[in-house]
Amino acid sequence: MNRMPLDAAVFDFDGTLAELVLDFSAMKERVALAAAAYLDDVPPPNGLPALEYAGHLAGRIRPVSETGARRFLDDVAGRIRDQEIEAARSARLFPATRAALSALARAGIKVGIITRNCRAAVAIVFPDAGDFADVVLARDDARHVKPDPRHLLDALAVLGADPARSLMVGDHPMDVATGKAAGALTAGVASGRVGLDELARHDPDYLAVDVASLVAML
After folding, report:
1. Cα separation of 14 and 17, whole Å?
2. Alpha helix (H) residue ranges in 89-208
3. Are residues 84 and 96 in the same domain?
C-alpha cells in the first residue's frame, strides 16, 4: 500500500504490544463452572469468546432468575479479572513496543490502546503506558468492547482523529473486523497466535510480523 498520512494508530494490547499469555480456553471453563450453579445443562461456547459466552449463559439464566443472572455476571467478572491479573504477572511487553510507539509519536501520529483485558492487568505489564499512548481504553474504561466498533471510535474521539485517516492494529481477525466496522484502516500483526496467512484472509490494509516491522513499513 502506498504511504499516506495518518492521524492516529490504535493498538490492541495482548499479542500486539505484549506477550499473549492468557488461556482463553481456561477462561471459558471458569465461565461454564460459574454457570453450573444456575443451569442444569451448561451449553459449550461453540466458538464464542469468554465475554460473549458469559452473556449468552446469562441470557439462559435470566428467564428463570433475573437476580441469578446478575449474580452470575458479577461472579464471572471477578473470575475473569483474577485470571487476567494472574496471567499479567508472567507476561512482558514486547522489547520493541516502546520504541515503536515513540517513533509514531515523533512522526506526529497520535497513539491509542484498546483492549478487552482489564485495566489492572495492563498496568502490571505496561505501567508507563500513559507515557507512550494518548488514550488507553481497557474493558473497565469502555462503554462497549471490540469487536463493537464503538470501542475504537471512542478512542479516536478522545484523540480527535478521523477514522478514515486512522489505523487499527491487532494480532487477531477481531481487530481487523473492528477497524473495518469503524471505517478505519487496518493492520494485522502475527505476534500473537494467528499466523500471517490467516490474518491475510481477512484482508487488512497492512500485514506485518510484529509492531516494530509495521512501524518501519509505515
Report:
1. 6
2. 97-106, 119-125, 149-159, 173-182, 196-200
3. no
Number of domains within the chain:
2
Cell 461472579 appears where?
75
Same domain membership, residue 57 and residue 13: no
Domain annotation covers residue 99: yes
Residues 12/170, Cβ–Cβ less than 8 Å? yes
Cβ-defined contacts of 129-132 (< 8 Å, 24+): 132/97, 132/98, 132/101, 132/102, 132/105
Q: Are residues 66 and 173 in the same domain?
A: no
Contact present, 55 and 124 (Cβ < 8 Å) = no
Q: Nearest Cα to 215, choosing from 164, 167, 173, 177?
A: 167
DSSP state of 165: G
Domain end among 88, 112, 127:
88
The per-residue pLDDT for range 4-48, each reduced to its tens digit, is: 689 999 999 999 999 999 899 999 999 999 999 999 999 999 999
Strand spans (E) along the chain: 8-11, 110-114, 135-137, 166-170, 185-189, 206-208
- At 192 the three-state DSSP class reads coil
pTM over 0.90: yes
Which of 67, 88, 109 delimits the end of a domain?
Answer: 88
The residues, ordered by sequence, that sit 6+ positions from 211 with a Cβ below 8 Å of its Cβ are: 11, 16, 17, 94, 96, 97, 100, 169, 189, 191
Distance (Å, whole) CA 27 – CA 46: 14
Residues 51 and 63 in one domain: yes
- Look at residues 86, 154, 74 and name the one whose alpha carbon lies nearest to residue 120: 86
